[in-house]
Design brief:
Distance between the termini: 68 Å
Number of strands: 24
Strand content: 15-25%
Largest sheet: 7 strands, mixed
Number of domains: 4
Structural class: alpha+beta
Number of helices: 21
Radius of gyration: 36 Å
Helix content: 40-55%
């Protein structure tokens, strides 16, 4: 009776078509959908003779058939077809959680036939169980009704086939009989699957960790036993009592792609107990307590009440820059700007003459001097001038030896591309001192303005960490910027990088290539560096290795090529937070002034952070090619945890004091393998920001 009411309701809403006439017909239906219906729908959609109403009607019909195909694929246990449909359509387009005329959902059929792969695929796509099954009794009654009615229908059709003479109607009856016999067997298999199922075992590997001063994170795995029905959801409970009386809260997790949950809004310093239980069509299984059995929300800063290092720094710097600009508005260098309206005619004629000045155009060849080049790229294309050259402008034709101080100053200016005009006005007033450094930097600002004007864009991107030089005395400062939108530039056009490299005619010898030839040959490496330097780490706690190398005019830091904006590192764990208890243990280790033991002692073997550090140190030493026995003299930086936002944090591993920075001429016995860079420290600091 209940099943009949459901069927009447569904038929009234016209949500689902009647069942297929035979198993073969069902197979043909969902196999032919990707061919027949797709072609018809596409052709109608692109045609101009079909009205918009007809197109929408046809689209709905197409999705309607796709939903039917999903049901048939699940019933026939065709995993490949199920995955294909889930990939091709969204859950809404498939009508994934709307019951069919029998009151069933695709997930119901999968779990009651105990088809674990299909059930998991449906669960990850967001499938739900039928809301009609509010209890075990209602599910059992519904299945019994489906089996009884299918059996009754089989008997009726069998009697008709036996009693009727062979004709066309009889042949159709035989097809219906085969289809109902197949459905009768399906319902019996679903009923048997439900009756033999039992509640799931407790989840395995329930781990509790401190996520912040007000939250805990619990991760868990599926029950180890595979004899019960498919688990469709989990429940996380927490309480201040180990008996969970009273409980403080619970959360049901039905999105099973990632089995973890963060409990928010907890009190710092309060111990919380957590447990997790699993659910299947037979109900909730027993709970599994977490390991450790409780945790206390906290953060390492609570150990000594330390405030975040960068709190308010950005705002303070913005305020300071605003004050500097206010002072310079009344500077003598701004006086000519006030008389600009009176001298408009003179300035216009001067600007027109400037258009024909050689310095106002991109350069084709280099002389002995200092130059600026801007590389803009999009996918495999690069911006070039109409002469198929990378845009280059002159900075100083008398400057043949770039001082590191000037180059590092230029990299800092790259953080203020929008303020170049203001910086030029401020530097102009100091030219009377005839300082060579100021004159060079003023020419740098002029070249930047010229490049911005010729390209019609202010942001020239990121400065490459070292200039390109040749033996003829040419020096190129290179900026790199990836264009992700359809941006308009002036005086340039897009060409494929490979075409530019193959078509360029070199004017230098292979033994002594010019700076432009060197740039073009290595352009892919520079683009790869630029892309990698903008990548972010996945959330977690990392162990970083600090190694410096000093020279006469700079200090360099060891970084990996694959991520040059971060120190050499390995991941310790996915949880970035260091709790107060963990930080207290690290402080105790540091105050003991003893090296970390190679093998864990008995009292440390139960410390999860110690075990994680043991594994991370071994992995990091292998990464940077340092024998593990040398690690006994290394130290953990115990002054602070380096926080990069809220999702990434670092613990630093330091060599002995004498080996942190290798002096000029000092031999480093342990040279890292390939895949590392020695980056200027100031460049690294800008990239890390």
């Amino acid at each position: 009776k209940m099943t009949q009411q459901m069927r009447d309701l569904q038929l009234a809403q016209a949500r689902k078509p009647p069942g297929p006439s035979s198993p073969n017909a069902a197979k043909r239906l969902y196999r032919n959908l990707s061919g027949k219906f797709r072609v018809n729908y596409t052709s109608f959609d692109e045609g101009s003779l079909v009205g918009r109403g007809e197109k929408e009607k046809l689209r709905k019909s197409y999705l309607f058939q796709s939903n039917a195909a999903l049901f048939e694929a699940v019933e026939l246990q065709d995993l490949d077809r199920v995955q294909e449909l889930l990939k091709q359509y969204s859950p809404e387009e498939l009508d994934l959680n709307t019951p069919n005329s029998e009151g069933l959902l695709p997930l119901d059929i999968a779990i009651m036939t105990n088809n674990v792969p299909i059930a998991r695929a449906l669960l990850q796509a967001g499938a739900k169980e039928s809301p009609h099954f509010v209890s075990l009794e209602s599910r059992s009654l519904h299945l019994s009704t489906l089996v009884r009615e299918a059996e009754q229908r089989v008997n009726e059709l069998m009697a008709q086939v036996v009693n009727e003479a062979p004709n066309a109607d009889c042949s159709e009856k035989e097809k219906q009989l085969k289809a109902w016999e197949w459905r009768f067997r399906l319902y019996k298999r679903m009923k048997a699957g439900f009756e033999h199922a039992r509640v799931p075992d407790a989840p395995s590997s329930v781990h509790l960790s401190v996520a912040s001063s007000s939250s805990l994170q619990v991760t868990f795995s599926e029950p180890l036993s595979v004899n019960s029905a498919v688990v469709t959801k989990y429940k996380v409970e927490w309480s201040c009592s180990p008996t969970f009386s009273p409980p403080l809260g619970e959360a049901v997790i039905d999105k099973l792609k990632d089995l973890h949950f963060t409990i928010q809004g907890l009190l710092s310093g309060t111990a919380y107990h957590v447990r997790v239980s699993a659910y299947n069509m037979k109900g909730w299984g027993p709970p599994q307590a977490s390991a450790p059995p409780f945790a206390i929300p906290s953060n390492w800063r609570e150990y000594d009440g330390r405030a975040p290092r960068r709190r308010g720094q950005a705002e303070a710097l913005d305020h300071l820059l605003g004050q500097v600009k206010t002072v310079h508005q009344h500077c003598v260098c701004h006086e000519p700007c006030k008389n600009q309206p009176q001298s408009r005619k003179h300035s216009v004629s001067k600007s027109l003459k400037h258009l024909f000045h050689p310095g106002s155009k991109f350069l084709k060849t280099l002389k002995r001097g200092l130059y600026l080049t801007a590389i803009f790229y999009k996918d495999d294309n690069i911006l070039v001038t109409h002469e198929d050259q990378i845009p280059v402008v002159e900075i100083d034709d008398t400057y043949s030896c770039l001082l590191m101080q000037d180059f590092l100053w230029f990299t800092k200016v790259s953080c203020m591309w929008d303020e170049i005009l203001w910086l030029r006005q401020c530097v102009t007033v100091s030219q009377s001192s005839c300082s060579c450094i100021l004159q060079t930097r003023f020419k740098m600002l002029l070249a930047i303005s010229q490049m911005q004007g010729l390209l019609g864009i202010q942001d020239l991107g990121q400065v490459f960490f070292e200039p390109v030089k040749d033996k003829q005395g040419n020096i190129l400062i290179v900026t790199l910027k990836e264009v992700k939108t359809n941006q308009t530039f002036e005086s340039v056009r897009w060409v494929p990088i490979c075409k530019l490299q193959s078509s360029r005619k070199s004017v230098s010898s292979p033994e002594e290539p010019s700076a432009l030839d060197t740039l073009l040959i290595s352009v892919q490496d520079k683009l790869a560096y630029h892309q990698r330097s903008s990548h972010a780490l996945s959330p977690g706690l990392y162990l970083g290795y600090l190694k410096l190398c000093s020279a006469v005019d700079q200090i360099r830091v060891l970084v990996p090529e694959r991520l040059p904006n971060i120190l050499c590192h390995v991941k310790i764990r996915s949880n970035p937070n260091i709790s107060r208890e963990e930080w207290a243990w690290l402080q105790k280790m540091a105050s003991a002034e003893e090296p970390v033991p190679a093998e864990p002692e008995a009292d440390m073997s139960q410390n999860p952070l110690f075990q994680e550090l043991q594994v991370a140190i071994k992995e990091l030493m292998a990464l940077v090619n340092i024998p593990l026995q040398e690690a006994k003299d290394f130290r953990l930086y115990s002054q602070e945890v380096l926080d990069f936002g809220e999702q990434v944090s670092f613990l630093l591993l330091l060599p002995p004091s004498d080996d942190v920075c290798t002096a000029p001429g000092q031999n480093n016995p342990y040279t890292p393998r390939s895949g590392f860079l020695m980056l200027p420290l100031q460049i690294f600091e800008l990239g890390e920001e």
